Amino acid sequence: MAVPRILVIPGSLRAKSYNVRLAALASKQLTLADADVTRISLVDYPLPIYDADTAEESGPPHNAFKLKQLMSAHQGIFIVSPEYNASLTPLIKNTIDWISVVRERGEPPLAAYQNRVFALGGASPRRSGASHSLLALRQVLAVGCGALVLAEQVTVPNAEHAFDDMDELTDAGAANQLKVVVRKLVDTARLLA
Question: Could you tell me the fold of the domain covering 5-192?
């Protein structure tokens, strides 16, 4: 059976972010589930605020092309999103918007979002566990970009108490959710490999 390639993208730039920690844990579990995992930090791919005039006049920035190529090289994408004011972060939205306008010669629109599967997770100090962010992110990916997004997702509430000293989840429910999402992502990505 083919080993699926999974790209993990934490939607936070903060080094001590709960979502960076969740992305690291997801990467570990994906590796244990026999996936070929690449985890990136968006700090390494800075992008200006999306502007359609800029995109039309000078084309998308080089980092948008690099991110699109990274996504296209993977059968699965796991996005871990913080929650800002009950929605997704500007960082994630801006990244998705720039990647959405990148097209190689003869490629259909939104190609980076097609023929791959997306999984979502998020951690928040609030009781919602970033669920509002994931709802908005799901809409952007599924409706706006036409992506296949798994119904299963992992939400980690009360994130300041959610991780132990080894960065494992202390809440059994959230830990189980993560395992379910990882398994479903690997199984679905394997079908696309």
Answer: Rossmann fold (3.40.50)
Residues 6+ apart with CB under 8 A from 135: none
- State phi, psi for 55 to the nearest 5 degrees: -60, -40
User: Rounded distance, CA 67 to CA 42, Å?
Assistant: 9
Q: Where are the domains of the chain?
A: 5-192
Query: What are the φ and ψ backbone dihedral angles of 180, each rounded to 5 degrees?
Result: -65, -45
Q: Which pair of structure tokens corresponds to residue 115?
A: 């023929």
Distance of CA 144 to the CA centre of its chain: 15
User: Residue-wise pLDDT tens for the chain (193 aa)?
Assistant: 789 999 999 999 987 899 999 999 999 999 999 999 999 999 999 999 999 998 889 989 999 999 999 999 999 999 999 999 999 999 999 999 999 999 988 899 999 999 999 999 999 999 888 999 999 999 999 999 999 999 999 999 999 999 999 999 999 999 999 999 999 999 999 998 7
pTM, whole model, 2 decimals?
Answer: 0.96
